[in-house]
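Justification of resources, computational component.

The compute hours requested in this renewal are based largely on the per-chain cost of generating structure records like the one below. Each record pairs the submitted sequence with a full structure-token output. That output is archived, and it is also reused by downstream analysis tasks.
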Amino acid sequence: MALGLVAIFSFELVDLFFIAQLGDAPLAAVSFTFPVIWLLVGIGIGFEAGASSCVARAVGRGDQQQARRLTTDTAVLATLVAFVLAAIGLFTIQPVFSMLGATEELMPLIEDYMGVWYWLGPAETCMWTCLAAIRARGYAILEGKIITAAALLNAALDPIFIFGLFGFPRLEIQGAALASLVANLVMLAFTLFHLHHRMGVFANPIAPLKEIVASWRHMLSIGVPAMITNAIIPVSNGIVVAMIATYGRRCSGRIRYRDADRADGPDSFLRIVSRIQSVRRAKFRGR
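The structure output for this chain reads:
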């Protein structure tokens, strides 16, 4: 499990390492995305917490049928919610990140990155909810292996997609998001296959609506408080980011840089925030 936590942290660390080689502007653009990303991650953690708790209690009672029902219904609901949030996010990139203080120069980079990353949300949420069901059954080692494999695949794909190696087009900042998306999709496919064909933890997704709603209520009684708790820090970070970005714009007329791509002071702050958030992610997902 400790190896899995290191792998979780490495996702953002590896992405930032390669993005930093593109210049300060792409790194600053990605920094503006972290409050939004971590808000969505916090919602996903809520589903993960609900799935882990409810499934573990069902397994502890010896009620395997209920455990399978909860696993299936939670994964379906989490994925559906993630798709809705992704659709909303895609249509609100300009107003949301303008509100956070992103400049017009950074907005095209943010659109390139988030235009791909929003599709990562459903895949990541579904995979983490399924991994929570694995952990609830006592297979933490398997969970750690899957996380590590995803991190290694992401690290291998990052330079290929970002810099256009081996004949692939040079996608730059968009390539970082695409690498994470592909890595998560590959490991999600493996996870679903393994859980269904090797472990048999899924129930028939088609069931009486009453049973499905009962599973959702049971899971959300734990998941919603977890979502609210995990949303507090990203929301507060978003407010701080907007305030500091405004301060940076006011100073931009007084401070001139020879390097046109050099980031403002607020962007340096945002990079620190991004690393703190990575540690926070590992902390909560290790529970």
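The CA atoms of residues 2 and 208 lie 40 Å apart. The first helix runs from residue 2 to 20.
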